[in-house]
UniProtKB/TrEMBL annotation:
The chain crosses the membrane at residues 7-27, 39-61, 90-110, 130-149, 156-181, 187-209, 230-250, 256-274, 304-328, 348-365, 377-397, 403-425. Its main location: membrane. GO terms for molecular function: antiporter activity; xenobiotic transmembrane transporter activity. It is a multi-pass membrane protein. It comes from the Bacteria. It comes from Litorivivens lipolytica. This is MATE family multidrug resistance protein. It is found in: Membrane. Belongs to the multi antimicrobial extrusion (MATE) (TC 2.A.66.1) family. Keywords: Membrane, Transmembrane, Transmembrane helix. It holds the Pfam family MatE.
Length: 434
């Protein structure tokens, strides 16, 4: 099998599954954007940004599991593959239950901290309370999908994600419009579909779980066995928290310009997620194939994977940027029929169109560093980009209004790729990946 064939065998299903995630956000936005008030859309925008810290903030469970699973796969170590799945599952369950119990106490504070418009505060708080019920399902699904990607079983990841999001879209229509539940309907649709997705994910990893011997289960109680996975995941957690701070800060600052700008920027951010998940398909392929090479300690194969994934990622970035430019009018018209929101979205659309091409390197390099479990570099560079690029650029650009906010966000994504690129060149020169 050629390398490009292997990349597409993994990336193809993952691109489709990843695109179903922002597609869900686009459907949420489109349905809520056609209600008689932008308040519900603003409430979901704020609630979703806060949930990024509760749910997406634990995305390290997926990433860390993928890298460790891929390396165990490359080394053909079945015991290690089982151990990765067990330990990550135990960690996800504990964290999910903690979030479900503690989250409702923190939600009101988070809504206030996001400078939520008064008209949307009650709806945002209610949305959060409902969504937090599915915390265990979300985190356990992260682990199952991450393990499947590392085992190069990307089609199962596609089934899990597409089935979950397709059900969510149907329930959105039924609960938001049919039952008239507005933003609460969007929340309940997500909870129901997330537990359904967990059921499918557990079915997919079922054979591996059933084949685990009792002595491996006993090993879950030995704290020393968790040292490596906790080191990897702690760095990914800090990196992810910093990234999500950048998105939440963007939403919070958008709110200072009023409900109209907040709603417009919500539309554009959902479109950005649509393009970023397309790029992530090749990043996920890099995670699996780079991890396999690292497990074998095969430098030549590693270099070839990085080069091939880079070529496909660049092609995808160009295609996405061109597609956004050509489709600007119909896309915005699809997302909202509120004239003021549509006008604001048009004014800022060129920033969105530039981002896929600007962000190509950061997505690809994330995948490479996850596959090699060099996660500390991801942590260091992300913190540097937030503190030394994003926030200073926003501060200096305040006189430009919301365009200054978009400029800071673009420079932040550019810096992510450049900083990781410098580290990649250093490690590649010194052959210091494993």
């Amino acid at each position: 099998m050629s390398l490009h064939h292997k990349i597409w065998r993994i990336a193809g299903p993952l691109i489709l599954s990843n695109l179903s995630v922002p597609l869900l956000g686009l459907v949420d936005t489109a349905i809520l954007g056609h209600l008689d008030s932008p308040t519900y859309l603003a409430a979901v925008a704020v609630g979703s940004s806060i949930l990024a810290f509760f749910y997406w903030g634990f995305g390290f469970l997926r990433m860390g599991t993928t890298g460790a699973s891929a390396q165990a796969w490359g080394a053909e170590d079945e015991d290690q593959q089982a151990q990765v799945l067990l330990q990550s599952t135990a960690l996800a369950l504990g964290l999910g239950l903690s979030v479900m119990l503690i989250g409702p106490w923190l939600a009101p504070l988070a809504v206030s901290a996001m400078q939520t418009p008064d008209s949307a505060r009650e709806f945002a708080a209610s949305y959060l309370d409902i969504r937090l019920l599915s915390a265990p399902a979300v985190l356990l699904t992260y682990v199952a999908v991450g393990w499947l990607i590392g085992q190069q079983r990307a089609r199962w990841a596609l089934v899990v994600m597409v089935a979950t999001n397709a059900l969510n879209i149907v329930l959105d229509y039924l609960l938001i419009l049919g039952a008239g539940l507005n933003s609460d309907g969007a929340a309940w649709a997500s909870v129901i579909s997330e537990y359904s997705g967990l059921g499918i994910a557990l079915w997919a990893v079922g054979p591996a779980l059933r084949g685990i011997a009792r002595q491996r289960l006993a090993g879950m109680l030995v704290s020393a066995n968790y040292r490596a996975i906790l080191q990897t995941n702690s760095a990914l957690f800090i990196r992810t928290a910093a990234l999500l701070f950048a998105f939440a800060f963007f939403t919070a600052q958008s709110a200072t310009y009023g409900t109209t700008v907040l709603a417009a920027n919500t539309i554009l951010l959902n479109l950005l997620l649509f393009t970023s998940h397309g790029l992530d398909g090749f990043a996920h392929a890099a995670e699996a194939l780079v991890g396999e090479s690292a497990g074998r300690k095969h430098q030549q194969e590693f270099t070839a994977v990085c080069r091939a994934c880079g070529q496909w990622s660049l092609a995808m970035g160009v295609l996405l940027s061109i597609g956004l430019l050509l489709g600007q009018d119909p896309i915005i018209n699809l997302m909202t029929d509120l004239p003021a929101v549509a006008t604001s979205a048009h004014e800022h659309f060129f920033w969105l169109a530039a981002l896929p091409l600007i962000s190509v390197a950061s997505y690809l390099l994330d995948g490479i560093f996850i596959g090699t479990l060099q996660t500390r570099w991801m942590q260091h560079t992300m913190l540097l980009c937030v503190a030394a690029v994003y926030l200073p650029a926003w501060h200096l650009g305040q006189g430009l209004g919301s365009h200054g906010l978009w400029l800071a966000f673009l420079l932040f994504n550019l810096a992510r790729g450049l900083s990781l690129g410098l580290v990649f060149a250093r490690l590649q020169h010194r052959r210091d990946w494993w």
